[in-house]
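Ticket closed. Logging final result for Dihydrodipicolinate synthetase.
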Amino acid sequence: MEIKGALAEILYAFDDNGDLDRDKLKNYIGFLLKNGISGLFVGGITAETMSCSKDDRIEWLKAVNDTAGGTPIRFQVNSSKKEDMLSEIKIAEKYADVISFSQPYPITLGNDEIISYFGELCKDTSKPVMLYNEPAVGKPIDIETLKVILNKNDNIRYYKDSTHNMIDLHSLLSAGREISVLAGSDGLIFDIINAGGKGVVSLVINPFPELVVKVVDTLLKNRIKEALELQSIILKVRTILKKGGLTGGYRYAMNLVGVDIGQPKFPYSKLNESIKTEMKSQLTSLGLIQK
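Final structure:
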């Protein structure tokens, strides 16, 4: 299975009590699918998964699977205890097409430990694996360690890069190991696809799917000038949305386009009215929100 294009790192759809709201989730996923996204990433580190229990996250995955209509799903295993991770993997294999692993947290392991860590996890799943290099939860996996991990584990088929290290990325892409590379930052869609990447796992895509789908499609068709202009807009949007904290700005923007997925859950912060007014004005000036 090849998964490429514009994938959404989806947020958790909360009700007023902070629990999963299936009706909101169904409407949300339908909105994304209608606008041409090519895959769903569940349990991402940025998507408030840290405020959810293991049971919450599995319920979330099952609900997405019920709604996705065959759209490829990737699931991020986030437990830190091995027994919990193995249990989560076995459940996730029933509902996801690809299992994703990142560095363990909150501890920082040495390179040999990182190699062993991924080796243990990869041998415990029959599914294709995505290696998610996320420095926010530990030190970035350096390129030489990454190459060893990939060479030792044939079932790692995908690599989500959030390091912003283009030198290492070019080294990986020229190393000869066949792997589908995905941008892990909306700020580097243009650079990573131009370097040989296959797409992006995006947050901006949640409120503005057409924008991200279009830049990926334009890049894959080698329309470079048009793609660069679209990337410039995405950078502006990303800056605006980040005014609302890690996820609050994305949730508010979704409300502005008519998709309610609830308020952020503790410890993530809600937006004050001043920030909302500023964000709405700036998104309107870009033509993304109607007056």
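Residues 5-221 form a domain with the TIM Barrel fold (CATH 3.20.20.70). No further action required.
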